[in-house]
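ok new one. same drill as before - C-alpha cells go in, u give me an amino acid for every spot. 274 of them this time. try not to just spam alanines like last time pls lmao
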C-alpha cells in the first residue's frame, strides 16, 4: 500500500495531466457532434477489424470439424450414387430412319477400348437377348461397330476404331461407294478408301452406310469428309472422315436385327456352290 502512495505522490503531476486531458476530451466529444462521430467511427473501424481477425481465427480452428462433416456427407452421397439404379434411358430412334423398335436390341456399353490398334467394346446384352455375331451396332449419331462374339449375357463389338474393321460406305450425295477403314491414328477420324477419281467430292460432304451388306441398312450416318488425297498405289481417292460419334464416350447403343440376313447368306452360298 505504501508503494502505491509513493507512486501517486511521485507521479502526481502526470496523473493530474492525464485526468484533465480525459475530462477535456469527454467534454469536447459530448459538445461537438462532428468530433463524436469521428471518434465512434474510429472505434467501429478498430473493433470491426478485431472482430474480423477473431472470426478468421475461429473459422480456421473450425476447419477440421467442417472438413470431417463434409467428408461424411460426401461418403453418404457416394453410397447413394453407387447403390442407385441406372435410370438413364436410351435415346429414342426418331432420328434413325428405317429402323423400328422391333428391329433393334437396346444395350449399353460397359467397356470401351480406344487406345490400341485393335479396339473392342463390351455390351451388357448377349445371346439370351437375341444378340448374334455380325449384327451392326449403332447409336443416335451413327454407326459404332459390329458384333464379334457373344455369351449368354454379354457381347463384344469390333469397334470402328479397329484396323481389322471394314464397312461398306458411300458419299451420300453421289452414291460413290468405298470401304470404311481405320488407319490406327486418331480416335475422331476414319478413312474411306477406293473412291473413284470421277467422284465429285468436297470437304464437308456426308458419308453414310452403303447398304451393300446384310449388317447395316443404307444411309446410316458415319461422318463428314475432312481431307481428300490420292492413293499413289491405287490411283483412287482416300478420304479422311470426321466421325459424328465420339468413340471415346459411348453409352446406350442399338444392335440391329437383320431379318433377311440368313436368307441372303444362304442364297449367296448357293450361287457360289453352283
Amino acid at each position: 500500500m505504501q508503494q502505491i502512495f509513493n507512486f501517486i505522490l511521485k507521479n502526481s503531476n502526470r496523473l493530474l495531466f492525464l485526468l484533465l486531458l480525459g475530462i477535456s476530451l469527454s467534454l469536447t466529444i459530448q459538445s461537438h457532434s462532428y468530433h463524436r462521430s469521428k471518434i465512434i467511427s474510429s472505434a467501429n473501424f478498430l473493433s470491426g477489424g478485431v472482430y474480423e481477425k477473431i472470426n478468421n481465427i475461429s473459422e480456421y480452428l473450425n476447419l477440421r470439424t467442417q472438413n470431417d462433416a463434409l467428408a461424411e456427407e460426401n461418403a453418404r452421397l457416394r453410397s447413394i450414387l453407387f447403390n442407385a439404379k441406372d435410370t438413364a434411358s436410351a435415346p429414342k430412334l426418331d432420328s434413325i430412319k428405317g429402323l423400328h423398335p422391333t428391329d433393334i436390341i437396346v444395350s449399353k456399353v460397359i467397356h470401351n477400348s480406344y487406345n490400341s490398334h485393335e479396339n473392342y467394346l463390351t455390351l451388357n446384352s448377349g445371346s439370351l437377348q437375341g444378340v448374334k455375331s455380325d449384327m451392326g451396332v449403332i447409336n443416335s449419331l451413327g454407326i459404332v461397330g459390329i458384333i464379334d462374339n457373344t455369351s449368354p449375357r454379354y457381347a463384344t463389338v469390333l469397334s470402328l476404331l479397329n484396323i481389322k474393321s471394314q464397312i461398306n460406305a458411300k458419299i451420300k450425295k453421289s452414291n460413290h461407294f468405298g470401304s470404311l477403314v481405320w488407319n490406327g491414328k486418331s480416335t475422331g477420324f476414319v478413312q474411306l478408301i477406293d473412291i473413284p477419281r470421277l467422284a465429285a467430292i468436297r470437304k464437308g460432304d456426308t458419308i453414310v452406310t452403303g447398304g451393300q451388306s446384310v449388317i447395316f441398312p443404307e444411309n446410316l450416318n458415319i461422318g463428314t469428309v475432312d481431307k481428300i488425297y490420292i492413293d499413289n498405289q491405287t490411283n483412287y481417292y482416300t478420304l479422311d472422315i470426321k466421325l459424328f460419334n465420339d468413340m471415346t464416350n459411348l453409352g446406350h447403343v442399338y444392335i440391329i436385327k437383320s431379318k433377311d440376313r440368313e436368307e441372303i447368306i444362304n442364297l449367296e452360298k448357293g450361287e457360289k456352290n453352283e
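The longest helix spans residues 33-83. and btw Residues 2-81 form one domain.
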